[in-house]
Amino acid sequence: MKTAFRIYDMNNDGFITNGDLFKILQLLVEDNLTDIQLQQLVDRTLIAADKDMDGKISYEEFCNYCKDIKIIEMFSMNIFWNSRVYWENAWQDIKNKHHL
Ligand SMILES: [Ca+2]
Ligand SMILES: [Ca+2]
């Protein structure tokens, strides 16, 4: 879980912010989404995960959110980075979840 959180927390400040999420998703989706679509996904994810509404996702919020979306599966395993098929399935889940 901690590892997954660190992957998301690109600048290692202990919180996942809008900027962190944007960067990681940008890496993940490559050219499949425009920046605007990407930003919408980031915003929705933040709103969904940020329970105390301070605009960033703490480790606890991240854990709770992952229980819902199972995103942990793809970020907790390095398999994700090498497996295109695995990612595409996971991405489909995200799209369903967020009604994209
Ligand atoms: Ca951060
Ligand atoms: Ca928060």
Describe the structure.
Helices cover 68% and strands 4% of the residues. By secondary structure, it is mainly alpha-helical. It has a two-stranded antiparallel ribbon. Helix 2 crosses helix 3 (35-49). The longest helix is centred in the middle third of the chain and has 15 residues, at 35-49. Mean pLDDT is 79; it is low at 76-83. One calcium ion (CA) binds next to strand 1.
CATH class (first level) name: Mainly Alpha
Mean pLDDT: 79
Low-pLDDT parts are 76-83
Beta-strand level of the residues, as a percent range? under 5%
Helical stretch tally:
7
Question: How are the strands of the largest sheet arranged?
Answer: 1-2
Tell me which ligands are bound. Answer: calcium ion
Give the termini separation.
26 Å
- Strand tally: 2
Please name the fourth-level CATH homologous superfamily. EF-hand
From the 3D coordinates, which CATH architecture would you assign?
Answer: Orthogonal Bundle
Q: Nearest-angstrom radius of gyration?
A: 12 Å
C-alpha geometry: globular
What is the CATH topology? Recoverin, domain 1
Provide the number of structural domains: 1
Q: Note the main sheet.
A: 2 strands, antiparallel
Report the order of strands and helices.
HEHHEHHHH
The secondary structure category is mainly alpha
Residues in helices, as a percent range: 55-70%
